[in-house]
């Protein structure tokens, strides 16, 4: 059986401190053996993790569309931010990728996909995160579960990890598959969700990291 996490970040995201090699090492320590790296608006971190890892790595991206965040999986090229939700989904599908909706009902993230945007792209959604370890309110996860059940959409449990301490807590246990998008879909049908929460205090570290990187960028610009 595989332990897969479909939402992870590296230092190529502005709010993450985790180097690609740290992510690989932590996956090996915790028993994760299949991951998707989904940095914000870039696939460079995913490419570097794939080059380092001895286990399979899906190239993904958490894309900031005009209607909120959408994850693309199995990408060959980055999808630019700032597109409409429908155009974002179209760009993912043109690459043969899967569309995943991250933390769709999180009350505390301004980047969450808006309700009208979600309804618009729902026919094209492959996966919904029904457990995101960074969601502070469990009712937000339950609402995502209700959505997936209502529309018969595949489910995932993810860490959304930005730091090494978050890696390996939630995941989906799935049978081995052929490494293709259709193979993952079939495997998730048989998946078992493993849900383990992370402390809400982790959000303070994420905010601090983002501010520190912005300051460093401004100083470098000077």
What is this structure's SSE topology?
Layout: E1 2-8, H1 20-30, E2 34-37, H2 44-52, E3 57-65, E4 68-73, H3 85-94, E5 98-101, H4 115-121, E6 127-132, H5 138-151, E7 154-158, E8 171-174, H6 181-189, E9 192-194, H7 202-221
Parallel strand pairs: 1-2, 2-3, 5-6, 6-7
Antiparallel strand pairs: 1-8, 3-4, 4-5, 8-9
Helix pairs in contact: 1-2
Task: List its traits.
222 residues, alpha/beta, TIM Barrel, nine-stranded mixed beta sheet, 36% helix
Number of helices: 7
Strand order of the largest sheet: 7-6-5-4-3-2-1-8-9
Give the helix proportion (percent range): 25-40%
Q: Could you name the CATH topology?
A: TIM Barrel
What form results from the Cα inertia axes? globular
Can you describe what's shown?
By secondary structure, this protein is α/β, with parallel strands linked by helices. It has one domain (2-221): Metal-dependent hydrolases (TIM Barrel, Alpha-Beta Barrel), CATH 3.20.20. Helix content is 36%, strand content 22%. The chain contains 7 helices and 9 strands; from the N terminus they run βαβαββαβαβαββαβα. It has helices at residues 20-30, 44-52, 85-94, 115-121, 138-151, 181-189, 202-221; strands at 2-8, 34-37, 57-65, 68-73, 98-101, 127-132, 154-158, 171-174, 192-194. The chain has a 9-stranded mixed sheet with strand order 7-6-5-4-3-2-1-8-9. Helix 1 crosses helix 2 (44-52). The chain is globular, with a radius of gyration of 16 Å. The N and C termini lie far apart (51 Å). The mean pLDDT is 93.
């Amino acid at each position: 059986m595989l332990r897969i996490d479909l939402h992870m970040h590296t230092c190529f995201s502005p709010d993450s401190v985790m180097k690609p090699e740290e992510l690989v090492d932590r996956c090996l320590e915790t028993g994760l053996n299949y991951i998707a790296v989904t940095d914000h608006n870039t696939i460079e971190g995913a490419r570097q993790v794939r080059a380092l890892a001895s286990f399979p790595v899906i190239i993904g991206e958490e894309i900031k569309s005009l209607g909120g965040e959408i994850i693309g999986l199995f990408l060959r090229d980055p999808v630019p931010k700032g597109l409409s939700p429908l155009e974002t989904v179209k760009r993912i599908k043109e690459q043969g990728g899967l569309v995943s909706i991250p933390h769709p009902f999180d009350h505390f993230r301004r980047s969450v996909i808006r309700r009208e945007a979600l309804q618009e792209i729902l026919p094209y959604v492959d996966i919904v995160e029904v457990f995101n370890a960074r969601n502070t309110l469990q009712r937000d996860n339950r609402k995502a579960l209700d959505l997936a059940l209502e529309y018969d959409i595949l489910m995932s449990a993810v860490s959304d990890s930005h730091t090494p301490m978050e890696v390996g807590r939630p995941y989906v246990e799935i049978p081995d598959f052929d490494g293709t998008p259709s193979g993952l879909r079939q495997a998730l049908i048989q998946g078992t969700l493993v849900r383990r929460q992370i402390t809400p205090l982790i959000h303070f570290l994420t905010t601090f990291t983002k501010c520190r990187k912005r300051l460093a960028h401004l100083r470098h610009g000077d």
